[in-house]
Known about the structure:
Blueprint: H1 9-36, H2 44-54, H3 59-68, H4 77-85, H5 90-103, H6 110-122, H7 144-149, E1 154-159, E2 162-167, H8 168-172, E3 183-188, E4 191-196, E5 209-213, E6 217-221, E7 231-236, E8 239-244, E9 249-252, E10 256-259, E11 262-263, E12 278-281, H9 300-306, E13 308-309, E14 314-317, E15 320-323, H10 328-335, E16 343-346, E17 359-360, E18 364-367, H11 380-388, E19 392-395, H12 399-440, H13 444-473, E20 479-482, H14 499-529, H15 548-553
Amino acid sequence: MENGIRPDPVAMGKIRGPVMRKLFLSACMAAFIALTHNPAQASSGAEDLIKMARSGVDEEVLTAYIDASTETFELSPDDIITLKDLGVPSKVINEALRHGRAGESGSASESEAGEEIESAYDDAGESVLTAAAVAPQPGGLNISFFYEALYPYGNWLDIDGEWCWRPNAMAISPEWAPYCRHGHWVDSDWGWCWVSDYSWGWAPFHYGRWFRHRRHGWCWVPDYEWGPAWVAWRRGNDYCGWAPLPPHTRYVRHQGFYFSGSRAGFDFEFNLTLNDYFFVPTRRFCDPHPWVYRVPPIRQEEVFRRTAFVRNSYGFERDHIFNRGVPAEEISRASNRPIRPITIVHEDLKPGQEIHRGNAREDRLIIYKPEISPEAPRSPAAIRSFLEKREVRVPYRKNETEKNLIRRQTDAAQQTLQRERIKAENARQEKYHLEQAAHYEANSTKQAEFRAEARIQTMRAREAQDHVGNIKRWNLSTEKKAPVMPRSRIVPQPSPESRQQVQTRVRDQIQRETQVERQHERASDEMVRKSPAAQTRNHAGNPKGNDRRSFRRK
């Protein structure tokens, strides 16, 4: 015992009886809950986490809330998919899974945990927190179909008289961008095609146009024509990049692009700036996670100048649009591996079946791409009003428990806000010391190292400041409306996997994605260190060659 105090055996004997009775009653209550528990419903900890994610809270606040929580987060596969579709990074989901395992009692077996994970596969019911779009009746689809299908995953905003969709992922992660995270490129009979990992990725990455709003970040304007990926391209000097085409850009068959009603020349760059592009080394373009090697913003201008705009990147071949982009032969030479084009196949869904993300196989990509007409008979406001009548109100808690939950979430936000402010200030101070050390350093190699580290600290300060802005904009709602979308009427096939296999597969996938996100951070730092702009010429400086520590002592 602590402080050298030993328990009194007589006193322990007096309390052993009541303790055993309480343990017996607790076991009975646990058995009752287990028998009456609806497996399709998320656990209380999972519900709270999903509600916070739906409210658009910053990812750092989610992490702080998980760390401070006393509850376990028993995430089912459906819960994990919902969190990923809302834009929650895998490292946050992995933290919730680890937190849940840490909170489990030592007597809990792995098979019991596997039962919880498998529940979403065994039950045909659906949690009110999961809302997947389903295929409607064939024919007669229009723009209003997007308004309803994307409703659970973001917000529809009226921007300058035009309805635009802002994904929830944009609110959670300040660095989120379309055609960047959670997806990859494949060469196809339609040219370069973006295969998204999001459940809703079938729509905004193949129809419509994206733009960056000064306040709301990346937003999507719907359109009716399907394409493999609506992006512009740049290439050169071992780098390639792409940028989402802006609104009011339309491709006319056998004519080319029109921009704001006027025909665009073959060298027109659509008024895109360096901040609209995402660059990767050419040899990494076809990686399963190309965003890991995305050029950090601090090197964006340098790489932009080293690349050239790809002209005539779109064409009309075999009765459909063809997105040439960067030549596949160039990608193959740079990556030292063959690039084999695959065939895009339309997924013919029956009415009521769930719409899934594109499924890339060895020789084909199966993706849902229905024909859409340009009309929009119902606005997002009308659809929202319609869906709200079917929504289930899910209160956080009752009485004091609800107040305590809101207080914990608010405290997590305030603590994270303060921590990110301190992180940004420390990074700025570190940058100043590194720049001063480089100024007084005589050795050119060390001087270049100091300047590279200073650029990394600049990047760290900017990231922390972005989180500060995100947290300030967040407003916690006291209750969450969960839309009840039409569900699939197709009887699900039993899963061939055992419960233990499902549990292992889901958790291993999240751990792999967490490692990928950490790899991205390391790769960004390495790109900054190897930047030519970080190298400086050898010049006369401090003859003593003071390093950073000796400079700080001065």
